Amino acid sequence: MSATITDLKEMTAYMHEKLLGLVPEFEIARKAEVAVEINKLKKEKNAIILGHNYMEPALYHTVADVTGDSLELCRKAASTDADILVFCGVEFMAETAKIINPSKKVLIPSTKAGCSLASSITAEDVRNLKKKYPGVPVVTYINSYADVKAETDVCCTSGNAAKIVAALNTDTVIFIPDEYLAQNVARETGKKVIFPDFKSKKDESLDKVFVSWHGKCEVHEQFTVEDVSRIRAQFPDVVVLAHPECSPEVTAASDFTGSTSAMINYVKKNKAPNYLLLTECAMGDNIIAENKDANILRLCSIRCPHMNQITLEDTLAALKEDKYEVQVPEEIRVRAKRSIDRMLEMS
């Protein structure tokens, strides 16, 4: 496994074979040195690195002990024996690892790795929703901060959202904060979406309803039906894979909609001549490294500025200097953990 390689010559050869063409040749020697140093430090400090599917290839394929989407990384974080967890992802993901592992040291390589979607809602917003819709269960996307999770009945990911909602067996759900994910899951579960009007005193029909929120991912909201049509015109045999954070119009125009891990598995199991990935561009590079015959198309003018904050070099600095440590107040952590535990049990 590459995440255990501590010999520079071996790492350089591995990176040449795996990543040449995705990582410039002149960078491989330098990045191989960094990767080897990280792998040595992990062993010394009993640390592991959790790498989200959106990480750069030089990090994802060399030092990450665990890779995956939010659900997979949550599960692994819950079962690790490591003393230190370095979370190569955005802040809410590192918070989730700390919520599950209060006795572990959780580090994130950048303090700037936020999330437009997670920032779209606050704990006070959730409390106001619960006042307006008393007794309605709150399902919160994992892409949210700890204080919001603490106000939640159960969390979900893009991969298990429909299953979680169905398991609740209720006509009405508060589903926050991603309005596009809400609309996509509502279509799948036979519900409609409404948005709260806190000024209105009128009674609302809550029959088969998702009460949602105006939150969006700043990457996925930019993909359009016109993008899909344009690529199909150039590549008539293309298979379009869309993340459920894309608009319902885009997912309807696509051939497959799923979480990042579901998209990766789709490419592994199928042999289409061309794929278009409507998600963060870096994931396409990571798929190519594992599937050399796959022709992956992606719209790389649309990037996540937050995921791009996490680099191999910053990961080394985090592990070397024990920075930046993630803290979650205990009262919030305990309540947030209930909603995550319930998700893991239900999924």
Describe the structure using short key phrases.
347 residues; alpha/beta; Rossmann fold; 3 domains; four-stranded parallel sheet; globular
Write a structural description:
44% of the residues lie in helices and 14% in strands. By secondary structure, the chain is an alpha/beta fold. Strands 6-5-7-9-8 form a five-stranded parallel beta sheet, sandwiched between helices. Strand 1 (47-52), helix 3 and strand 2 (66-68) form a beta-alpha-beta unit.
The first-level CATH class of the largest domain is given as: Alpha Beta
Which band does the percent of strand residues land in? 5-15%
* Shape, principal axes of CA atoms: globular
The Rg value, from CA coordinates, equals 21 Å
- What is the CATH topology classification name of the largest domain? Rossmann fold
Distance between the termini: 28 Å
Class based on secondary structure composition and strand pairing: alpha/beta
Q: List low-pLDDT spans.
A: none
The biggest sheet amounts to: 5 strands, parallel
- How many individual helices? 15
How are the SSEs placed, and which strands pair?
Layout: H1 8-19, H2 25-45, E1 47-52, H3 57-60, E2 66-68, H4 70-79, E3 84-88, H5 91-100, E4 105-107, H6 123-132, E5 138-141, H7 146-149, E6 154-156, H8 161-168, E7 172-176, H9 179-189, E8 192-194, E9 209-211, H10 225-234, E10 238-242, H11 248-253, E11 256-257, H12 260-269, E12 274-278, H13 281-290, E13 296-298, H14 312-321, H15 330-346
Parallel strand pairs: 1-2, 1-3, 3-4, 5-6, 5-7, 7-9, 8-9, 10-11, 10-12, 12-13
